[in-house]
UniProtKB/TrEMBL annotation:
This is Peptidase P60. GO terms for molecular function: cysteine-type peptidase activity. Gene3D superfamilies: endopeptidase domain like (from Nostoc punctiforme), SH3 Domains. The keyword Lipid biosynthesis does not apply. It comes from Methylobacterium gnaphalii. It comes from the Bacteria. GO terms for biological process: proteolysis. InterPro entries: NLP_P60_dom, Papain-like_cys_pep_sf, PG_Endopeptidase_C40, SH3_16. The keyword Phosphoprotein does not apply. Keywords: Hydrolase, Protease, Thiol protease. Residues 170-295 form the NlpC/P60 domain. Belongs to the peptidase C40 family.
């Protein structure tokens, strides 16, 4: 099985018919697929936005179905159908298709203007840190601020965040490895892409998102889309290089240390690459399939 990835698709990309990225299910398809697939109904999707801290995207409209990935507050989605408490959607961030809880979605407007840069920040009912919290936002979540009240930004009728925990939406953290390092000890979570839980490609995607680098969701997609392949071998690696296995990915922090969210530690952990390669070859994903270097090299 492959772990997490994908970029927002257009009609040309849909010709690949990757089910993870193709807005198609029994009886219904995106109108852009007309003439490419057969369906009873072709639908022009409508724009919505995630309005809860995070929401699970599932492959079927059932709360007991496995989680493929997560969408976080502020992310745009295209909705094709709403029924029985679930919305059949395509995520704007990476093109992933599936079912979100209908109550996780709201109006596409206003467009977010701020992004959370703290690992997570609490939501308060008033601009007062002594008030009981009403939720939290994770690293990477975004929102439109309505006004500033003291040290807080109002992001809804009764929701405030601490202003120092967010930055303008255009802010970038170019050292994506530094972002990954901030997430050390975050628990491993299949499908996770928040600071409460991450899988391997979720760690890579979130770290690159904060650097302003578009990144697919699953490892096979990341391996195909990101950077340039390096010659085989574990020598001459540098900070920011991506190491891929069939179903797993990690980031090099320097020439020898790997950071990755993994099931062995059940957390985001740092370990010598050669030790990880030996263990993974013996117990899980087999041999390294490629090492890739991004043009945006971490400083």
């Amino acid at each position: 099985m492959t772990e997490r990835g994908g970029l927002a698709s257009d009609a040309a990309a849909m010709n690949t018919r990757d089910p993870r990225l193709t807005p198609l299910r029994a009886g219904l398809a995106d109108s852009r697929l007309r003439g490419i697939v057969e369906a009873e109904r072709f639908v022009d999707g409508w724009a919505r936005r995630v309005v809860v801290p995070s929401a699970p995207l599932r492959g079927t409209p059932s709360a007991s179905a496995g989680v493929d990935t997560e969408a976080v507050m502020g992310e745009p989605v295209t909705v094709y159908e709403e029924r029985d408490g679930f919305a059949f959607v395509q995520l704007g961030l990476d093109g992933y298709v599936g079912y979100l809880p209908e109550d996780a979605l709201g109006s596409a407007d206003p467009v977010p203007t701020y992004r959370v840069t703290a690992l997570r920040t609490f939501l308060y009912p008033e601009p007062n840190m002594k008030r009981p919290t009403i939720g939290y936002l994770s690293l990477g979540a975004s929102f439109a601020a309505e006004e500033c009240e003291g040290d807080f930004l109002r992001i809804g009728p009764e929701a405030y965040v601490f202003a120092a925990h967010v930055r303008d939406l255009q802010h970038r953290q170019p050292d994506f490895c530094a972002t990954a390092e901030r997430l050390i000890d975050t628990p491993y979570l299949w499908g996770g892409r928040t600071s409460l839980g991450l899988d391997c490609s979720g760690l890579v995607q979130l770290s690159l998102l904060m650097a302003g680098v578009a990144c697919p969701r699953d490892t096979d997609m990341q391996e195909a889309a990101l950077g340039e392949a390096l010659p085989a071998g574990l020598d001459d690696l540098q900070r920011g290089d991506l190491v891929f296995w069939k179903g797993h990915v990690g980031l090099m922090l320097d020439g020898s240390q790997l950071i990755h969210a993994n099931g062995h530690h059940m957390a985001v952990a740092v370990e010598p690459l050669r030790e990880a390669v030996e263990r993974i070859a013996e117990k899980s994903f087999g041999a390294v399939t490629s090492i890739r270097r991004l043009s945006q090299v971490a400083p």
